[in-house]
Amino acid sequence: MILKERSKSVIHRILESLNHRTGLSHAEKVQYENQIKGFDGELAFDRILNESDISGLILNDLLLNTKDTFYQIDSLLITDETIHLFEVKNYSGTYVYKNDSLYASSGHALQDPVAQAERKRAYLHNLLIKLGHTLDIQVCVVFIHPDCYIYDLPKRETILFYGQLPGHLKKLAGTLPKQSDENLNLAQQLIIRHDDLYRPTNLPAYSFDQLKKGIRCFNCDSFSYNKSRQNIYCNVCGHKEEATKAIYRSIEEFRMLFPDIPLSKEVAHTWCGNDWKKSRIRRVLESNYRVHNRGRGSYYTDD
């Protein structure tokens, strides 16, 4: 049972938005491409996990904080007796393992993913104690890309390659009893502690004025569209979307990019490209947010 669906990280979504609204430097493009590749790998893992019909509670993309240390867990499988922590790596190409690191053919060194996962296991273990739970935690690092080869890698039960994953999950599913709701409370406690607002420190610098304004197509990210009273129609791919949903989606993009700028009707109107009547913008705002200080200085928040 999936209790927390997977979604793009904040930094992934910010880089995606900036890529279309202002452009990225070479280093930022590399960072963005790594985010895309990592997310694609996690989705590939999800497909295999879902096909296994494994019994358990699944939490994806947990961002937790233990003593001011933030750590992301790609996937947790909570069973009655054990928590399985999956660290998913979408590396492709040839690597050599030595001195507790992975070395690419280019010579670049990568941190040992098993050591990374073990640190997360330790953080999660301490959090479970704090929450009053004593479940065993088993770590598994999954190299999900079919074209990933690592030489001189010590044999570890904690490492799985793409071809091994379906069989491992099938075997695991065969050993698990039918899942009860015994640990549903634990799963819900972890979801509550997920920090969806965490913003890493390595974000690119950007400002409101420098970004292109307008509503991006949900399907192809184009800013070119025609509109009717109820819908917008992309001029590039033909995608149709309800106008109200498109405006709301664009406002949410603004809030993600600029959490410190008050959300007013005027700001939302400008952000959406000055292409909609302010009365239409106001209706979307009032339908989805709480208004403060009605009048000239009004602004909108979630609460």
UniProtKB/TrEMBL annotation:
PROSITE patterns, A to Z: NERD
NERD domain residues: 37-147
InterPro entries reported for this sequence: NERD (IPR011528)
Protein name: Nuclease-related domain-containing protein
Organism (species): Alkalibacterium subtropicum
Highest classification ranks of the organism: Bacteria, Bacillati, Bacillota, Bacilli, Lactobacillales
